[in-house]
Specification:
380 residues, alpha/beta, Aspartate Aminotransferase, domain 1, Aspartate Aminotransferase, domain 2, 13 strands, binds pyridoxal-5'-phosphate
Length: 380
């Protein structure tokens, strides 16, 4: 089969570099990450005897990543998994088993807000966890006072968001931690999108992500395939103490390693190699520059949108996501018209608006083209 066949097949779907994909939290992977991925394409991180080097590389990247996420005691650990959904699942699975082992719980519950990603709801369903929904503040963040009302003796974890999927909002981890520490309940932070951005950026208008520096935080999801620009699949599942991993440790008698602490057995060594490449050869300074550009473009769009005066704009750009709602027409009708013009844009259902994710492939030139289409559609 010729490569022309695959090129043509691939070209039936859009490419990030076309600049029309405004909905995605992934972007074109960095070339060094792609090279590393291909080099290790046939390696299985689930077989640490056969692929010892991948095993070493995974320990190296996890050590670096937890440090970025605030681990200062050298005890944090974790795994590179398939994505944020799996990392959220593993986190809640671990925290449920930890709670069931140490406390008398009749019906395990989690407290999570309506801004949580649907993978939290799926995981709760699979793990038999009842979700107690906490209120959002007027800024669409988890309300710590309401969390205090909602936790009970059955709560196995409070879920917080750092870069919520629809609005990009960042919960006040320190305020939530006050509640969780008072009741001795672990926090799981879904920082799939915002974790690395808000840990690596300096001179932020907003507070940095405290991550593991915050005592109540037991588990964190932070995804390399979103904001370290590595190929899909690569999610990050991190725990504050490697000892907690025993709660999801299972026997794998036929393997020389004898145990596993992940959901899936065979895992992509390529994913680990690509993160290794980004950390070693791209570095945090360059990542910071890439993030700064994303924020700049987002801010540029934000100001233009306010000037047009025909939209209600949500969010305060804590992460590079903007949500807006047309004042003169229906959101669904506008979205359909934008799709017809070739833009890929999704809704932020919480406010019945439209959402733009400012990843590196969304530059000013694309934003200007989009704005011109947007203006023509709301004016006619
Ligand atoms: C906040 C958040 N958590 C979890 C996920 C799930 O990640 P994945 O699609 O990699 O499974 C997403 C995906 O967009 C997300 O935005």
């Amino acid at each position: 089969m010729s490569s022309k066949f695959f090129k043509e097949l691939r070209a039936k779907d859009p490419f990030y570099e076309h600049g029309t994909i405004l909905s995605s939290m992934a972007s074109k992977p960095l070339s060094i990450a792609v090279k590393a991925f291909f080099e290790f394409l046939d390696t299985n991180a689930g077989d640490l005897i056969l692929f010892k080097n991948i095993h070493r590389m995974e320990r190296y990247v996890v050590k670096k990543l937890v440090k970025i996420l605030g681990c200062i005691n050298g005890r944090c650990s974790g795994y590179i998994v398939s994505g944020g959904s799996e990392a959220n699942f593993l986190s809640l699975w671990l925290l449920r088993n930890y709670a069931l082992k140490n406390r008398r719980i009749r019906r395990p519950e989690i407290v999570a807000s309506y801004a949580s990603h649907y993978s939290i709801i799926k995981a709760a369903n699979a793990l038999g966890l009842k979700i107690i929904y906490s209120r959002l503040t007027k800024d669409y963040k988890t309300d710590p006072d309401d969390v205090a009302e909602k936790v009970s003796r059955n709560t196995i974890a409070v879920v917080a968001n750092v870069g919520s999927v629809e609005l990009g909002t960042v919960d006040s981890i320190k305020e939530i931690a006050k509640v969780s520490l008072e009741h001795n309940i672990p926090i799981h932070v879904d920082a799939a999108f915002g974790g690395f951005i808000l840990s690596i950026m300096e001179n932020l208008k907003f507070k940095k992500f405290p991550g593991f520096t915050c005592n109540g935080v037991y588990t964190v999801t932070a995804d390399p395939h979103k904001t370290l620009f590595t190929p899909i699949p690569s999610g990050g599942f991190f725990v504050r103490d490697h000892k907690f991993l025993k709660h999801i440790r299972f026997k794998a008698p036929y393997l020389p390693g004898k145990t596993t602490e992940t959901l899936i057995g065979t895992r992509s060594g390529g994913s680990i190699a690509s993160i290794y490449a980004v950390l070693k050869f791209v570095g945090l300074k360059r990542l910071k520059k890439i993030y700064e550009k994303c924020y700049e473009t987002a801010f540029y769009f934000y100001q233009k949108l306010l000037k047009i005066g025909k939209f209600k704009v949500y969010g305060i750009l804590e992460t590079p996501i903007i949500c807006f709602k047309p004042l003169t027409c229906s959101t669904d009708a506008l979205m359909k018209k934008l799709w017809k013009k070739g833009w890929t844009i999704y809704k932020c259902s919480i406010v019945d608006g439209l959402r733009l994710v400012f990843m590196p492939h969304v530059n000013r030139a694309n934003v200007d083209k989009f704005l011109s289409d947007l203006i023509s559609l709301v004016e006619h």
